[in-house]
UniProtKB/TrEMBL annotation:
Protein name listed in UniProt: Sensor histidine kinase MtrB
Reaction catalyzed: ATP + protein L-histidine = ADP + protein N-phospho-L-histidine
UniProt source species: Micromonospora inaquosa
SMART domains for the chain: HAMP (SM00304), HATPase_c (SM00387), HisKA (SM00388)
Keyword Transmembrane helix assigned: yes
Amino acid sequence: MSTSPPPPSPSPTARRPSVGGELWRAVSGRVAGVVGRAHQTWRRSLQVRVVTITLVASSLLVGGFAFLIADKITTILLDSARSDVRQRVTTGANYAAKQVSFYGQAQEAQLQETIDGTVNYLAGGDPQQTSGVVVAITADDYPNDIQTRTSPSANVQSLISPELRAAIADGKVASQIRTGRLTGETTKYLIYGSPVPTRFGQIELYYLVPLGRQDVTAADARATVVATGVALVILLGLLAALVTRLVVNPVRVAARTAQRLSAGLLDQRMVVNGEDDLALLGASFNQMATNLQRQILRLEEMSRLQRRFTSDVSHELRTPLTTVRMAADLIFAERDEFDPAVARSAELLQAELDRFEELLTDLLEISRFDAGFAMLDSEPTDLVPVVHRVVDRLAGLAERVGVPIELDLPGTPVIAEVDPRRVERVLRNLVGNAVEHGEARPVLITLGIDETAVAITVRDHGVGLKVGEEKLVFNRFWRADPSRARQTGGTGLGLSISLEDARLHGGWLEAWGAPGQGAQFRLTLPARAGDRLTTSPLRLVPADAALPFGGPRDGGTLAIGPGTGGALAIGPTPAGDGQRTEVHS
């Protein structure tokens, strides 16, 4: 029985991550962090931008100016050296021509001595002179053996190029600049050559002048220009930083003061110094802040008085309303004994007293919200019975107007920490409005839940809402169609109170609508009191809403409506497994 060998274990190198890769990631991460911080500073600081732009612009300008100045100095030094060497070459060629003009081919020994003396004389008379100038006379084209003589002694053949030799052989005075080593360290030389005519032909005179002194002078000039340019750029940067600071600091103070004012610290003001434009800005800002403070305090006082007036009036009306209610109840109970006209008046009086009492109740509730005295009594509540109670209470109204109410509720309890009284009031307002505007078409109530939130949607198929009205419906006493006859005689405060109830829970109350497609309201509440909402279990735009451009809908997966602010609502229809649908008519 054979057994296969065990698979090879991975090598330590394969298991261990690459050190180079980790180092590269660390370096790239640090560079990215530095770049990010620099970019953030560039975006946030006006002073940094102004100083940086000033430094870059001045550096380019001063750098270009320094380059031109250094190049001009170098050119002047080189031209001066050329002029001096050219004069010396001309004088030396004339002198050498006179010295060798007396000799012919038969006097070669005396000619060599004369050339040696002429080179030493042209070099200054001292073969060991230390000025660095090398004088050389060559006769390479002479048929006999006349040796090249230099003073001081050096091998100049490597520095004299064939092009220069050819130019001088043609009878021209020519020059070139080459670098080499003659008497010591490697040096740049200016080489000038001139032909020297004789009775037996032509010899060449060369001056090799070192340019070390000119290079040092040019380098010193460049260093001076660069140092001056750097100092000028730094000075300009400091000046720009100072000027920008004088302008930016008051702006920053104004921004901080404005932030404090927006936070409610209305007594904050800027310190004003001087009489310049910035001082005028500070004085104008302070005057504006004073006027705003005065207006805000005035509006707060007016709002406080208005809230107090509403609360006082509502409370004061309770006593006479109670008396009138008792009298009206007595008259209403005896209406069968009255004339038909008086009996009808008693019924109208009873109905208007009901509406007046409801209006007083809503005004008191609104005044409590405005004063910040509204309290939330949260407790774990099953929302399914709450929905049923609301539907049962409005069943008579729905039957009277011919609007069936359909329920899409989970088959299991939906528990959330809410104030059941307030939630029931919100649903009563939403369902009542949907029945009022249902146009004898079904009203669908859907309940959904997820890990963090519960949501209830109320969908009607009436005339719907125009663009922008999905925000106006929550305004106090606002009506989409004031001429429309109401069945319940509402107060116009129901949706406003519902919105405040939703906010008191930390939830959302939103509306969607489209002309001819009806409307849908969605109440979303956190499953646990105090949690923060991020999403809703149900969609705001219903699945059966038509696209604005009239396109078909595929399974209710895409919805666009005027109430969404142009947003897309994408996802499956919320109703899923474990839910049941009921119809109340």
